[in-house]
């Protein structure tokens, strides 16, 4: 069973249509959206997000969430 933190990362990725990255992010310890706001491009690459367009989408989405 997933904790709330893990499922919210999955839900966020699903909303963006990038749920294929969930395993890599969770595997690297990015299982909480609170922590994800600190993620860098390098962190994303280590988690398997190599497509520059996808990195932009993820980083942009996190920036918008921080402004709320």
UniProtKB/TrEMBL annotation:
It comes from the Eukaryota. InterPro entries: SAM, SAM-SH3_domain_protein, SAM/pointed_sf. It holds the Pfam family SAM_1. Residues 4-68 form the SAM domain. It comes from Nothobranchius korthausae. PROSITE patterns: SAM_DOMAIN. PANTHER family: PH DOMAIN-CONTAINING PROTEIN, SAM-DOMAIN, SH3 AND NUCLEAR LOCALIZATION SIGNALS PROTEIN RELATED. This is Inositol polyphosphate phosphatase-like 1a.
């Amino acid at each position: 069973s997933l904790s709330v933190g893990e499922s919210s990362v999955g839900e966020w990725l699903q909303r963006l249509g990038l749920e294929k990255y969930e395993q890599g992010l969770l595997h690297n310890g990015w299982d909480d959206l609170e922590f994800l706001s600190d993620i860098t491009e390098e962190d994303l690459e280590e988690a398997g997000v190599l497509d520059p367009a996808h990195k932009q989408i993820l980083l942009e989405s996190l920036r918008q969430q921080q402004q709320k």
